[in-house]
Amino acid sequence: MSVHIEVGGRSNLLLTGDIETRLDVPARGIAEGFSLAFSDGTLLRGTFLDGAFTCRFALAVEGAAQVRITRHDDGDRVDLDWDFEWITLACGQETLQPEAADADEDVLQLTLDIVVEENV
Q: Are 5 and 58 in contact (CB under 8 A)?
């Protein structure tokens, strides 16, 4: 399975390939950033720039998928190769952080635990 992600207009993410959809990123995701979590364990962090017309992606957690991020002047394109069962979008700085926050900080921390089961 192959999925491609890029900006598809102001504050939108366009997913093409084996999945065809447009995701509207809420205002909090535009202001604070967002996370895309994939069923294989991959976690991408995204940040909108230039009034939400361009986006930069970073690989926060490496899962089983092969991930390529291509940088362009008008934003990044992400290519993922894997057979995903689900993809989810979460918004905000404290959402789906791959590393635990400092114990002295008082912030909301959600953990992402993914279990992959194989049928034999």
A: no
Tens of pLDDT, residues 2-47: 899 999 888 899 999 988 999 999 999 999 999 999 999 999 999 9
Report the C-alpha gap between 118 and 2 in whole angstroms.
20
Cα 76 from Cα 54, distance rounded (Å): 8
- pLDDT at position 107 is 46
Would you tell me how many other CB atoms lie within 10 Å of the CB of residue 2? Answer: 15
Type of residue found at 40? D
In the block, residue with structure tokens 């364990």: 41
- Please tell me the distance from the alpha carbon of residue 72 to that of residue 74, in angstroms, as a whole number: 5
